[in-house]
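Journal club prep, notes for RB
We'll compare a predicted complex against what the paper describes. Inputs for the zinc ion case:
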Amino acid sequence: MPRCESCGNSSVLASTLTSRQTETANPPPYGLLANFDQEGRITTMECQGSSLDEAQAAFEDPPAFFNTCPVCGSGSINWQN
Ligand SMILES: [Zn+2]
């Protein structure tokens, strides 16, 4: 399952690669958040401005999209094991 190499978080990852809401004064830092189960499968996703197409693509290929740990902000995500 994916794991942040900085803080060890493996339950939630964020994507900075998708669109995000920009019309608000304080846009969210990430366009898409995903929660993962113990086996590394996505359980739920939270769209914060990403399109449905982007969310679908991210769901099908998480390592290509979820590049950031929202807990500590690190971009070092280990997708091995
Ligand atoms: Zn982290």
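Talking point for the session: Helices lie at 52-60, 62-65.
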